[in-house]
Amino acid sequence: MEGFDKLIEYLPSLLEGALVTLEVAFASLAIAIVLGLITASVKLSRSRAGRFVAEVYTTVVRGVPELVLMLLIFFGGQIQVNNIGAYFEWDYIDVDAFTAGVLTIGFIYGAYLGETFRGAFLAVPVGLLEAGYAYGMSGLQVFFRILVPQMMRHALPGLGNNWLVLMKTTALVSVIGLHDLVLKAGQAGGTTRLPFIFYLFVAFAFLVFTTISIWGLKWLEKRYSVGVRRA
Amino acid sequence: MDFTPILENYQLYLKGLWITLQLVSLSLVIGLGMAVPLAILRTSSNPLVNAPVWSFTYFFRGTPLLVQMFLLYYGLGQMQFMIELSQQLDFLKDAYWYALVAFTLNTAAYTTEIIRGAIEGTDYGEVEAARACGMSRFQTYTRVILPSAFRRALPAYSNEVIFMLHGSAIASVITIIDLTGAARIIASRYYNPFEAFIAVGAVYFCITFTLIGGFKLLERHWFAHLRPREEVKAKGRTKDKAQQVI
Q1: Are the CB atoms for B100 and B23 separated by under 8 Å?
Q2: CB contact under 8 A, A195 and B169
């Protein structure tokens, strides 16, 4: 194919971009899991106000496109941070594309994972938790030692789907100027005037990430289902 | 917070809304039309029929919509035949069509897999009953398999519609002035990104929940036979459904 030598020439720069894409994906996943666990716990808690806040959070995220939220946090967030900074007389704080992108994606998928985890929490028998308390564990200990390992088996299919979608969403950070795989490919395609092969490379890179993830998720599902007999 | 620049430019937002609705509904309709035959081919046990459809859906579901759109818009623009063709056909210079094609292929791939799942979920007894009644293969599909498959596909398809609405925001990246594009123009002209994007987010929010409401009504209609009779139970069920839909 035309321009294959160019692709080789730009490969180091593309790989750098791929690394940024993966960094964004894993950082957002970490934030999303933490937010998801908090959201699920709050939704199942007795606090009426907490449940209301969690409900508003998940509803807003579902209703607004990812790109709009990202632009809001990147451009709008900078102005708000400047305003707050001016009030407290801080030095200039820069909301960079990486932070804005990771925060937005983490924020969005935290809401979706909240739903996944809520269902998974409900699938864990209460007796197991009671047994934990009976051994004298604290609430946090029961949460991390019993509830989370037990519910993971139920949460994994949903978690896996969300991870696959999250990874593709990271492409949006190129719109706010982060030098991820998509932007690097766009620049290389622009200078060589051969955008097709570069975007095709990006597409295949994402296919590779997706395929590896699917294998990994299958392995994880097997691992977490060790204690369950299959029909 | 000052929303006056947005109210003053409401016409720009209205134009953007119109473009967004056009892009989303056109791609959904064409995509659904493509997905039904593709889903039937996808359920075939013959690998020669199944594999091409599988590769199509695997590619379009495994890569970001943004990259697919770039591949068409920038990638095709480099090809010699496209350059020659767009000198004769003026509409090929318009980014709108590239976005529409990308969205259509993307939603076709997702919808194919949704319908495939629903077709494969058909109770085989129904197919046997249709055969026993003397229906041809075509009749079995149009009279028995597809109607019940569409019904089962509805909750997942409503998700796909919302996904497409939200995904369409990226059209603004290739110079199309859709809803998000309008907000970006206002944000850069008045330097009020916070207000501009909150306003446009609210519009998307309203469309999303109108659609979700519409799909709930459709489900009530099509799943009427599954609703329990007692009033108390009915309330519990609709709440469960709502969570499934979203």
Answers
A1: yes
A2: no
